[in-house]
Design brief:
three-stranded antiparallel beta sheet, globular, 18% helix
């Protein structure tokens, strides 16, 4: 085995890419877009969960027609739990591109 100095070698620098940047690239979202968070959408109807309350008698949900009124959640576990409490829904990602809000299925 031959041992040599590492000074002649250059390490390849790896740029760290955030999960949000990866999602933007996968969905073709402009780089300037702001990730708003996760939401819940009624599958097939296009309505967005705008209010969620898990009370004693059960779960109370309110729905809105536009993503601007969607209840935004920061964590995957939270949105998954809420979505599972509302049958017939899907988890979504919301991005603000300025003139509009883009919505994509989260899985």
């Amino acid at each position: 085995m031959q041992v040599g100095a590492r000074s002649g070698r250059q390490k390849k620098s790896r740029e760290e890419v955030s999960p949000v940047d990866t999602l933007k690239r996968l969905f073709g979202v402009p780089a300037h877009a702001q990730f708003l968070g996760f939401g819940v959408q009624c599958a097939g109807h296009g309505q967005f969960l705008s209010r969620f309350d898990r009370g004693n008698p059960g779960v109370e949900c309110a729905w809105a027609d536009s993503p601007e009124s969607a209840l935004l959640m920061r964590g995957w576990r939270e949105v998954l739990a809420v979505s599972q409490s509302c049958p017939g829904t899907i988890e979504i990602l919301l991005f603000d591109v300025g003139a509009e809000i883009l919505v994509f299925p989260a899985r």
